[in-house]
Amino acid sequence: MNVLYRGTYPSSEIYKAIDTFISKEAPKRAEYVKELATFWHNTANGIEVIFILEVPDARLADYVKAQAERNAYMQTRIPNYNCEVHIGMNVYEGIQTASQWPR
Question: In percent, how much of the chain has pLDDT > 90?
Answer without folding.
Answer: 71
